Known about the structure:
Elements: E1 2-7, H1 16-23, E2 27-32, E3 47-50, H2 65-77, E4 82-85, H3 87-95, E5 99-111, E6 114-115, E7 126-135, E8 141-145, E9 150-155, E10 158-161, H4 169-178, H5 180-185, H6 190-199, H7 201-219
Parallel strand pairs: 1-2, 1-3, 3-4, 4-10
Antiparallel strand pairs: 5-7, 6-8, 8-9, 9-10
Amino acid sequence: MRALVIQHEEDAPAGHVSAWLSERGVGEDVYMITAGGRSPRSDDYDLVVSLGSEHSAYDDELPWIAPEAVLLRDAVSADIPVLGICFGSQMLARALGGRALPSERGEVGWVTIRSDDPGLVAEGPWFQWHHDTFVAPPGAVVLADNAAAPQAYTIGRSLGVQFHPEVTVPIVAEWVAFGGDALARHGVDPDRLMAETREREAENRLRAWRLLDAFLDRVAAVA
């Protein structure tokens, strides 16, 4: 198997997703879509992952938004599973006929969600850092939510999650270092957030692996 990982910024890598792919023997090609260059073909892969971004999936002034929508739509049309994470879930929803839009209430920090399928999407807590949300596309099944936003959906062999199962302590540390304004707006103490992230490191990794394994086995249905 081989996975295409769509990355949007240098400080938003695949983290636990990359480690999980390696552990499962899945090859990984990282495509920094914001850097331009030739777009890969989704049908050259067995799995496509779209990561988070500081940008908005509804910002059509960004030259790479439309090409990413096409890439994700082509993958789904070719029956290739897609995993969308935060921005990636919004981008996938939009590409398939749903919407990406500003959220009435953003989320930053470790958040518990409500899940209709805890065996697939555990109730957390999961790491969140977003100010946008999605309306799930036609035919999707919304599996999880909270007071702020829908949190997970499946459509065919694909899964979108609003939270960040991929984050590691170094990833969160880099976001905290450059996200002071967002932290202040949400009343989040950066030192406390980092302390909680370190405390939750082992359980978050375990929870991420369970989510990714369940996605592969139950949603993507890859042998």
